[in-house]
Amino acid sequence: NTIYANKRSRVYYQGLVLEADTMSLDVRSEEVTAVGNVRLTGKGNDVTAERMRYNFSQQEGVAFKAHGQDGAIHFRYNPEETEFATFQRLSEEESLFRRSRISGCNFETPHYSIRAREILLYQKERLFLKGATLYVHKLPVFYLPVYTKSLNESSPWFLRGVG
Questions:
Q1: pLDDT digits (tens, 9 = 90+) for 3-59
Q2: What pLDDT shows up at residue 83?
Q3: What is the pTM for the complete model shown?
Q4: C-alpha Rg value of the chain to the nearest Å
């Protein structure tokens, strides 16, 4: 019940398209392992990665050395920390980025970005960041050990004291 593809292939599933140089798809669990120039598109997402594991039925997975767009958020792995740079889809509503940068800007060097050890995104609701540094172009401007931002409120900054 496993399908192997040794050449560039595509898998279509309920509005999602996954492309990769090589893939193995477990038909029972609906889980695919993709390696080499991996791209997952659809449902407001466009993720490019070196390798990826994705479960279509649970809509969760993990991508290594990933960059792209998850809803309105643009993200890119931090090349200085590539060993653990991941994008993980925890559910349809939650995404976790490790050792990545995010921005609302799509440029290769964005006007601004925030690099963090961990970024938790609740779709259309809130961002939570650990070990966050705000960059303007390539210049680090400000460090926050913990930062959260509403995606619905007009103010771009929210900071709450702990303890």
A1: 999 999 999 998 899 999 999 999 999 999 999 999 999 887 899 999 999 998 888
A2: 58
A3: 0.77
A4: 17
Query: With contact defined as beta carbons under 8 Å apart, do 65 and 87 qualify?
Result: no
The burial of 155, by beta-carbon neighbours within 10 Å (0-12 exposed, 13-18 middle, 19 or more buried), is given as exposed
Which range is least confidently modeled, 11-15, 32-36, 85-89, 111-115?
85-89
Q: Strand 60-64 and strand 126-136: pairing?
A: unpaired
Tokens of 92: 């349809």
**Residue 107's CB: how many other CB atoms inside 10 A?**
10
Amino acid making up residue 84: F
Task: Report the C-alpha dihedral over residues 21, 27, 31, 32, rounded to 10 degrees.
Answer: 0
Beta-bridge mates of residue 101: 76, 115
